Amino acid sequence: MTTLHPTHQLLHLAADQKSAEVTDWSARISWVLGLLVFIAFVYWLMRQGWKWRGSLQSGLPELPTTPEGFADGETLLTLTGRYHASTTAGQWLDRIVAHGLGTRSRVELTLTAQGLDVVRPGAAGFFVPASALREARLDKALAGKVLPEGGLLVITWAHGETLIDSGFRSDHAAEHQAWVDAVGRLTGAAGTHLTTSTTEGTAR
Fold it and tell me: pLDDT-based confidence at 198, cuts 50/70/90?
C-alpha cells in the first residue's frame, strides 16, 4: 500500500477542487440563466397586467391641468415629498394606472381656495379643483404597500364618476395633519376622517 507524502495529498486535493470548480461553473451559469429568464418572464407578466389594468381604466377622463392665474391666488399650504399612488377610493389594492397615476414620483403640492395643484417632476402633473375635493386623512397603506402609522397623506377627490384616493408622503411627516385640517376646512369636512385605515375597511 502506497502512502502519499503530505505534499502530494495537498496537490491531489487542489486538483480535485479545481476539477469540481470547472464542473460547477456550467451548472452555475445554467442556474443564473434560468433565474434571469424567470425574472424576465415575471417582469413581462407585470407589464402585461399593467397594460390590462390601463385598458380597463381607459374610460377615466383626462386629468385637469392647472388653470391660468392659479399662482395669483393665496397659497394655503405647500408640500414637497413623494407621490405614492392612486387607487379607487376605499379600495387600497385597486391601483389606478391610467394617465400616469400609477407612476411613483417626486411631488410638489400647492393648495389654494381654487384647489390642489399636483406637480410631478418626470411624470404627468394634474389639478384637483376645490369642488372635486372630498376629504383628507392620515393612513398607513395604499396600493399594496404598508408604511408606518400615519405615514401617508391620502386625499380623496372626484374625477368624472370615479372617487380616487391619492397618497402622498411629505419629506416632513409632521406636515400631514395640517393638510388634513386644511382640506377638511376647504371641503366642509373638518374634524372627520382624520385618522383611518383603508386596510381595515377593506378587511371588513
Answer: very low
Other C-beta atoms lying within 10 Å of the C-beta of residue 96 = 23
Torsion of CA 101, 104, 107, 110, to 10 degrees: 30
**Closest C-alpha among 152, 148, 153 to residue 136:** 153
Contact, 101 vs 58, CB < 8 A?
A: no
C-beta neighbour count of 184 within 10 angstroms: 19
Residues 6 or more apart whose CB falls under 8 angstroms from that of 61 comprise: 159, 160
Nearest to 140 by CA among 191, 97, 201: 201
pLDDT at 178: 97
Share above pLDDT 70 across residues of the chain, in percent, rounded to a whole number: 71
Three-state SS at 66 = coil
* pLDDT value at residue 77: 97
- Evaluate whether 64 touches 128 at the Cβ level (below 8 Å): yes
Percent of the chain with pLDDT over 90: 48
Cell triple for 136? 383628507
Task: Determine the Cα angle at 66 with ends 65 and 67, to 5°.
Answer: 110
Beta strand 133-139 with 105-112 is unpaired
What are the contacts of 130-134 at 24+ separation with CB within 8 A?
A: 130/186, 130/187, 132/157, 132/158, 132/159, 133/157, 133/183, 133/186, 133/187, 134/89, 134/158, 134/163, 134/187, 134/189
